[in-house]
């Protein structure tokens, strides 16, 4: 039984005992007064008392049992704080264990990611190193092939020159031989026939010598053509040799320039980096002088003059500062190092050089001098492998650059950023064009409204003019008593005139007059007679018609 029911049961038991005692006392007092009835009541009371005692015994037994249970519960309740404390400690230990496990899993994931990134960076560096070495070997092989081709072409040119000289010598010898033969033949003919037959046999001699002369001329033309073709071939061959030589020299020069740029002074490396940056800017779609400018000088708040390689303009007056003067001497030493110790030392110097340049860019406040709202400078690294080696040696390099307000960019990432800027400018230009189109459309609409009102007013005035024209034409030729009919009647009455009215007006006036009544004709004749007597009558008549 629960502990909260023990005390109510004890109270009920005590109440039952008190009630039994009261009944017993009442029975004793009434014992003498009642006879049989009272005895029965007494017996009933005793029976009830016995039941109460039995109930009391049961209640006492239950009370004892509940007391034992209550004692057990009290012992258990006494152990509850300790159990709760132990449970709390175990929960704390379990939570701590879970947190430690989560930390370990995160550290393990970070370590795996870092290991994978370093593996990828190492593989990228190895691939970049292999590509550089392959490019160098290819350049050397190409230079060797070009040298071999130049030597072969030079030998071919010398052989062609020797053959041309032999052909020219053969031509000269043949010409000399044929000249001698011609002279001998002429002398023989003259000796054989004599001078008396010279004039008579001139045609025969010419007939004999002409084929020989023609063949000699053809042979000479053929030799001259062969000489001309040989000269053209020699010129073409010489031009090809010159092109190959120039190409080989250009490749050698570019290879040497790249080597000197990587091994040379910081100024040379900076110029080479600016050249790569200029190429990227040209291919990004931005326009020089519009979306970006180069070699701008600015003055800081301390009065120091700083010069930025490139300033990229953004819509809204913002600018991006790009610097390309990073040193790559240590990177070249790292790539060409044959031993691992030398490579590690060169890589460490390369990281130190990049950190120093980042620190320099962060301290110059390029963005403040250029009036840029962006609070960082982009450091352009023209070789992807240079940044990869630096990050392999110092993974926190980008965080250090971010703390110095410097962003590191390679040709790939910079091209993506500049293409994005170019797209932003295209959107900006489209928006500006849309604003201009909207403004012009508004002005065009206003003009159209004014034009529509003017056309409406013009139509109203044209309608009025048409009405006035119809009224005037009615008085002139189409109305009753029109002027054309009246002046024609005047002419019929004998008025002298040197000109005649147009036939159409006469026909209209006659047709209208034929449709009139005799009274109208009489009225017209009366009007004409009145007009002869009073010239002002017509004007008064017109005024009456108008009124």
From TrEMBL:
The GO annotation for biological process reads: DNA recombination
- Classification via InterPro entries: DNA_recombination_RmuC
Keyword annotations from UniProtKB, A to Z: Coiled coil, DNA recombination
> Where do the segments described as Disordered lie?
501-547
Coiled-coil regions listed: 35-170
Query: Which superkingdom is the protein from?
Result: Bacteria
Compositionally biased spans, kind Basic and acidic residues:
537-547
Q: Where is the composition biased (Acidic residues)?
A: 510-521
Q: Would the keyword Coiled coil be found if you checked this record's keyword annotation?
A: yes
Keyword rRNA-binding belongs to the record: no
Q: What does this protein do?
A: Involved in DNA recombination.
Q: Which family does it belong to?
A: Belongs to the RmuC family.
PANTHER family found in the cross-reference section: DNA RECOMBINATION PROTEIN RMUC (PTHR30563)
Protein known as: DNA recombination protein RmuC homolog
| Source organism of this protein record | Tistlia consotensis USBA 355
């Amino acid at each position: 039984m629960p502990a909260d029911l023990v005390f109510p049961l004890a109270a009920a038991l005590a109440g039952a005992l008190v009630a039994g005692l009261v009944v017993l006392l009442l029975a004793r007092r009434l014992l003498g007064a009642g006879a049989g009835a009272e005895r029965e009541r007494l017996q009933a009371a005793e029976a009830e008392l016995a039941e109460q005692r039995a109930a009391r015994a049961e209640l006492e037994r239950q009370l004892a049992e509940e007391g034992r249970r209550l004692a057990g519960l009290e012992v258990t309740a006494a152990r509850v704080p300790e159990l709760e404390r132990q449970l709390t400690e175990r929960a704390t230990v379990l939570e701590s264990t879970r947190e430690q496990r989560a930390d370990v899993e995160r550290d393990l994931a970070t370590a795996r990611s870092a290991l994978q990134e370093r593996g990828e960076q190492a593989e990228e560096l190895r691939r970049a190193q292999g590509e550089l070495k392959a490019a160098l070997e290819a350049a050397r092989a190409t230079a060797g092939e070009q040298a071999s081709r130049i030597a072969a072409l030079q030998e071919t040119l010398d052989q062609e020159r020797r053959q041309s000289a032999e052909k020219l010598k053969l031509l000269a010898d043949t010409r000399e031989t044929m000249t001698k033969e011609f002279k001998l033949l002429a002398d023989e003919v003259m000796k054989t026939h004599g001078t008396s037959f010279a004039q008579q046999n001139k045609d025969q001699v010419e007939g004999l010598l002409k084929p020989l002369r023609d063949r000699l001329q053809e042979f000479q033309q053929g030799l001259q053509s062969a000489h001309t073709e040989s000269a053209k071939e020699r010129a073409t061959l010489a031009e090809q040799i010159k092109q190959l030589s120039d190409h080989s020299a250009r490749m050698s020069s570019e290879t040497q320039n790249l080597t000197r740029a990587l091994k040379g002074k910081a100024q040379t490396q900076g110029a080479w980096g600016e050249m790569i940056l200029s190429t990227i800017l040209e291919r990004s779609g931005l326009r020089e002088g519009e979306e970006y400018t180069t070699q701008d000088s600015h003055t800081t708040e301390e009065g120091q003059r700083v010069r930025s390689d490139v300033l990229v303009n953004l819509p809204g007056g913002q600018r991006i500062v790009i610097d390309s003067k990073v040193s790559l001497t240590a990177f070249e030493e790292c790539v060409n190092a044959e031993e691992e110790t030398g490579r590690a030392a060169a890589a460490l110097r390369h990281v130190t050089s990049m950190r120093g340049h980042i620190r320099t860019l962060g301290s110059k406040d390029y963005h403040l001098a250029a009036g840029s709202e962006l609070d960082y400078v982009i450091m352009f690294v023209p070789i992807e492998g240079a940044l990869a080696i630096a990050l392999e040696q110092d993974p926190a390099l980008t965080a250090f650059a971010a703390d110095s307000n410097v962003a590191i960019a390679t040709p790939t990432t910079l091209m993506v950023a500049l293409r994005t800027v170019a797209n932003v400018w295209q959107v900006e230009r489209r928006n500006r064009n849309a604003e201009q189109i909207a403004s012009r459309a508004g002005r065009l609409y206003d003009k159209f409204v004014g034009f529509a009102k003017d056309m409406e007013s013009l139509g109203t005035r044209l309608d009025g003019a048409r009405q006035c024209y119809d009224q005037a034409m009615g008085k002139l030729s189409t109305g009753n008593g029109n002027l054309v009919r009246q002046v024609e009647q005047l002419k019929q009455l004998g008025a002298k005139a040197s000109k005649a009215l147009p036939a159409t007006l006469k026909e209209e006036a006659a047709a209208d007059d034929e449709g009139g009544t005799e009274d109208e004709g009489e009225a017209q004749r009366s009007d004409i007679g009145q007009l002869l007597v009073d010239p002002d009558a017509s004007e008064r008549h017109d005024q009456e018609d108008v009124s």
